Amino acid sequence: MTAKRLDKISELIAGRLRALGGAVEFIEPNPADIYRMVDTPKQIGRMVHARFTGTGSKKILLIAHMDTVYLRGMLAKQPFRVDGNRAYGLGIADDKQGIAVILHTLAVLKAMNFRDYGLVTVLINADEEVSSAGSRSLLTKLGGEHDAVFSLEGSRVDSDRLSLTTAGIAAVVLNIEGKASHAGSSPENGRNALYELAHQILQTRDLSDPKTGLKMNWTVAAAGTNRNVIPAMASATADVRVLRVADYDGIEEKVKERIKKQLIPDTKVNMTFERRRPPLELTPANAALAKHAQTIYAEIGKKLIVGDVAEGGGTDAAFAALKTKAPVIERFGLQGFGSHSSDSEYVHIDSIEPRLYLLTRMIMDVAQGKAK
Questions:
Q1: Do 268 and 172 fall into the same domain?
Q2: What confidence tens digit (pLDDT) does each residue in 210-241 have?
Q3: Sheet of strand 81-83, all strands in order from the earlier edge strand to the far edge
Q4: Is pTM beyond 0.85 here?
């Protein structure tokens, strides 16, 4: 999504939050705080930050994101529609529903005149789909200032759940510089970057560790310009997944050590290690608060699954958890399906009331000291 379109969405969200009584501001990403990756856009959308001050002492942070992955023009072909129990729309599951649940939960609290919390903070960022390059530092800061964090990514249609862990995501990017020459008449005068790249990939192919959940797999590679030219440039990217923040340092150092051994003299091997997302790690605090959520759900005759095994994807909840011992729980949003798909993204309409009840009660119980 373009910054201009994100600004339009942020205006809409800010207006709704102001109408509910929040002190609202737009926060532009600080250039000094932006974590630049290979796909980080030049312009990053602003964040919507709202504060609702109450009469109590507990501070609660609600987070969601307004950006989507869809291209301009797709909405005309796939407008919002309702079919039975399903509400279809681009980005409806990831993560427009999250914003809607926050807004309607705040509306319920206002209608009940419930203000026993000290502070409810809302942060809606605009760069989650590009690994929160500009919002990660603020997410971490706010996470450390609150007594509980609830993240509004959605649950799955086949599993009504909350998540206590997510995988950390990183990328290894290798760029090889060689020397071009004619592949037919003088290949010996070249320095084949493709050969060097292949060597580096093969000698770093066994760094995954099933015991710790660490995974590193080479997924993208490119080299050369013409069939009859020894390639002067080659590049490759590996996908990395970790379950512990500490594992980032270990895998980065192992790759650095391995690539010191080169195959082709006079080639240059440059490595970049991108820490795209940390993992959300299981803690006693988030496990205890999730157990309380299960008791709330049981009050309305529903069973809430609490997932404590990372499913492979990363979310903003992990940034919020980096520097806090307070509970941080993911997937307070609606049950949905088809995120990032071309024609099937939807949410289950009958999950709206239970999820609104769950988040509203969780805020109330944390505020009143009934949940720890």
A1: yes
A2: 999 999 999 999 999 999 999 999 999 999 99
A3: 81-83, 86-88, 346-348, 335-337, 155-156
A4: yes
Tokens of 327: 């509970």
Distance CA 263, CA 231 (A): 15
Q: Dump pLDDT digits (tens) for 240-285.
A: 999 999 999 999 999 999 999 999 999 999 999 999 999 999 999 9
Given 276, 310, 327, which residue is the final one in a domain?
276
Report DSSP state, residue 2: -
- Could you tell me how many residues make up the chain? 372
- Residue ranges of the alpha helices (H) in 116-268? 136-143, 193-203, 247-258
**Total of domains in the chain:** 2
By annotation, the residues acting in catalysis are: 67, 128
Q: Hey, is 10 helix, strand or coil?
A: helix
Given 248, 276, 304, the domain boundary residue is 276
Q: Which domain holds residue 22?
A: 3-166+280-367
**C-alpha span between 264 and 268 (Å, rounded):** 9
